[in-house]
Amino acid sequence: MSLSVCPSCARHVRERACPFCGADVPPVVATPRPRVARIALLGAAVVATACGTTLEPVYGAPAPDAAANDAAQNPDATAAFYGAVPFDAGPDSGDGGDGG
Amino acid sequence: MTLGDRPRSLPIAPQAPPAQRRLPLADDVRPQDAVRPIYAVWEITLACDLACRHCGSRAGRARPDELGTAECLDLVHQMKELGVFEVTLIGGEAYLRDDWAEVAREIRKCGMQCTMTTGGRGLTKERARIAKDAGIQSVSVSVDGLRESHDLQRGVKGSFDSAMEAFDNLREAGIPVAANTQINRVNLHEIPAVFDLLASKKIHGWQFQLTTAMGRAGDEKNLLLEPWQVLDVIPMLVEVKKKADAASPRVRFFPGNNIGYYGPYEAILRASFPGKHRGSCGAGRSTLGIEADGSIKGCPSLPTAEYVGGNVRDAKLKDIWERAAALRFTRDQKASDLRGFCKTCYYADECKAGCNWTTHVLLGEIGDNPYCYHRASTLKDEGVRETLRKVEDAPGLPFDHGRFEIVRESWPK
Tens of pLDDT along B169-205? Predict the structure, then answer.
């Protein structure tokens, strides 16, 4: 189940009532998942959570390519979805695997 | 600031044992083994020109059986076929291998991204030009403190100045620069100042992680943070992130896998992640680690003895990736497998105890990670905090570990 950020205590929660502070938590607004394209894989080490796997740069930081820079301009933007799915997988393929 | 003498009489840079060979592979490939690594981190040599006191691989001397050039180039093609998109070259010190640029060039020729991480001691203008010519797209320089504490941790006087020169040499050659930093007891107080310094070098990204009890770092109890100190670390990093977002150019912020987890700061630190939070360990799912002798792991940081799944001299990379138990373990990891606090944690399904490397090298097994903000915060509300007590020394080999125990105590009044 997706986690939302409680607007009151800022913790991630599943419920509509925050179990930590009791505040009302708005439901998650689903963001359309773009079809995975090779170009979206540029800067692969930035973020990947299509199936819950988080791919982070283990050593250093990825190259500042165009795709990564686009994401960098908006720190709150959802970065390219790719994760542990085949490059040409469709938008829902990321729900496979163990789901993280 | 001091760490005292190095705490062991074993060689600082031991000779690595020969690679584990002919490890068993499963007969079948399961649906969950169809995952593919996006990111590979490749130690192309264990030779190093620094003597870092926190070095997990105890680098210094080349492995006795490192891959030859032809084997490296073949492995590049196997990575491409497997689906790897980005390869980060590390060491030891990658540039100490004679054919490092040839390997980088082949990675680029195959259409993969190529970056490098370096201590920067010998990253001269000439080597920077060679890196540029080879097509390396970004180099991350390790900086672990201001001059005094950096040199103390890196074990070589002058290494801080060399690292600063490396930034300049790389930028002069036209290579974008990034930085990576360990956070530990020696440098905790100066992390904001370190960031300011790095921002002045026009880095495009900063990755940081807690110093973890592997290799030489495990020998240095005085270097390791106590678990409860994440309550100081995480809010401090949030303040640094504000500076990173405001910097010009903006510095991309990359919390390492052992920074976290959850609590009121997660959504700020990982604002650019979908859902604004991390998932579970990606070893063997999205990440691939390679040691210079051809040993394959799910993550470059994992300890060699327990997590090498095979060797490319014995089997194809794809077969090791799909069929080695040591590569499969996170594909099968479930919240019900966790232990201790993590087993009953609210975030168990998403987090699965966070960074398996950190936990394994600390406790000798995975599933109960004390370096966690949510955990430390919850325990503090109960008047309790966790510290570490060392109960077993490491043998003194590359990528080894000793063992610590978690000790709970009352918060001091």
Answer: 999 999 999 999 999 999 999 999 999 999 999 999 9
Q: Which of B320, B398, B391 is nearest to B29 (CA)?
A: B320
3-state SS string for chain A:
CCCEECCCCCCEECCCECCCCCCECCCCCCCCCCCCCHHHHCCCCCCCCCCCECCCCCCCCCCCCHHHHHHHHCCCCCCCCCCCCCCCCCCCHHHCCCCC
Distances (CA, A) of B196 to A54, B159, B181, B243: 28, 19, 13, 8
Contacts of B176 in chain A (CB under 8 A): 63-64
**Contact call for residues B370 and B362 (beta carbons, < 8 A):** yes
CB-based contact B244:B255 (threshold 8 Å): no
Q: At what angle do helices B100-109 and B125-134 cross, to 10 degrees?
A: 30
- Contact with chain B for residue A27, Cβ under 8 A: no
Closest CA to B41 of B128, B112, B135, B129: B112
One DSSP character per residue, B373-386 reads HHHHHHHHHTTEEE
pTM of this prediction?
0.89
Whole-complex ipTM: 0.91
Instruction: Give the closest of A44, A86, A96 to B86, CB-based.
Output: A44
Helix axes B230-246, B191-200, angle to 10 degrees: 20
Q: Which residues contact B395 (CB under 8 A, 6 or more apart)?
A: none
